[in-house]
Recover the amino acids of this structure.
């Protein structure tokens, strides 16, 4: 099975400029990717929780000019456990679902919520229950719009996210497994990284891939330029640059027919995009190597 491979569009790099969106989508298409992941916030599609329908249409017109499939990433600040502006959080979520449908995409990635300690008197347990309830409610809109909300692991363990998704219990709310985030967390919290993928597999509908060295808490990482030589933090490197055991990851993921989105740091867009082609090829080669291995073992089993 040949998985589709995509690349993320960097919200800060395009910063609301649709000409820049076009430039990066073109680079992704030229490099040979199948999919581009579009950030809702990067294209100024939502203002105070309302979808700008005309803007979404403009974005769609640009995207339709390329032979690519699209997925959507919700604003990074979207957080159903943020009780400073809970009403607008819900509205931004709903508008992000509508944006996803408006550009003809089917997958919306949402970072699992995190309670900020000074937000309110809400406890961790209450915040978790509220997020489950909100996701259950938003799942109805997602279903109507033909969108799957894929909740991405950021700070918490995979077990925690699996339990959250089980509690929501809706087909339109599944998981985006980010292997790079999980690898760092597995080192920090001490869980078995590969076993967590096995456990999560039935819930995974989307995946983010990039490399790092499993070192350091993402929030406490020094600026990129300092972190890179030290190999610290969530570096968003091409596969093979860090030490995440991706061949093992892909062996466990055998049978997954979803998309792999390569989420690279924006500096890899430089140098005439040659890095993009190289990063895509390295990932494609690894996936094919693992797939071929599987073929060989079945051949042997048949002998
Ligand atoms: Zn991610």
């Amino acid at each position: 099975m040949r998985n589709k491979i995509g690349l993320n569009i960097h919200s800060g790099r395009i910063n609301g400029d649709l000409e820049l969106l076009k430039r990066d989508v073109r680079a992704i298409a030229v490099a040979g990717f199948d999919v581009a992941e579009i950030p809702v916030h990067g294209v100024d599609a939502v203002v105070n929780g309302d979808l700008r329908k005309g803007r979404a249409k403009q974005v769609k017109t640009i995207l339709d000019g390329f032979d690519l499939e699209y997925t959507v990433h919700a604003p990074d600040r979207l957080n159903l456990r943020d009780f400073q502006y809970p009403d607008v959080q819900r509205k931004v979520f709903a508008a992000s679902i509508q944006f996803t449908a408006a550009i003809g995409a089917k997958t919306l990635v949402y970072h699992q919520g995190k309670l900020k300690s000074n937000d309110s008197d809400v406890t961790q347990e209450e915040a978790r229950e509220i997020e489950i309830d909100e996701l259950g409610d938003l799942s109805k809109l997602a279903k109507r719009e033909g969108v799957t909300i894929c909740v991405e692991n950021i700070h918490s363990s995979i077990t925690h996210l699996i339990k959250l998704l089980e509690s929501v219990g809706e087909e339109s709310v599944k998981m985006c497994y980010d292997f790079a985030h999980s690898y760092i967390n597995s080192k920090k919290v001490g869980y078995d990284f590969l076993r967590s993928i096995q456990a999560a597999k039935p819930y995974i509908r989307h995946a983010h891939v990039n490399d790092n060295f499993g070192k350091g808490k993402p929030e406490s990482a020094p600026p990129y330029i300092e972190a890179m030589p030290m190999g610290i933090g969530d570096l968003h490197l091409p596969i093979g640059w860090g030490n995440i055991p991706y061949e093992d990851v892909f062996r466990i993921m055998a049978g997954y027919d979803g998309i792999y989105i390569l989420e690279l740091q924006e500096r890899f867009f430089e140098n005439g995009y040659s890095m993009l082609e190289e990063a895509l090829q390295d990932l494609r080669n690894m996936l094919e190597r693992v797939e071929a291995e599987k073929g060989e073992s079945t051949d042997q089993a048949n002998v």
About this structure: The CA atoms of residues 32 and 277 lie 7 Å apart. The first helix runs from residue 11 to 14. The first strand starts at residue 5 and ends at 8.
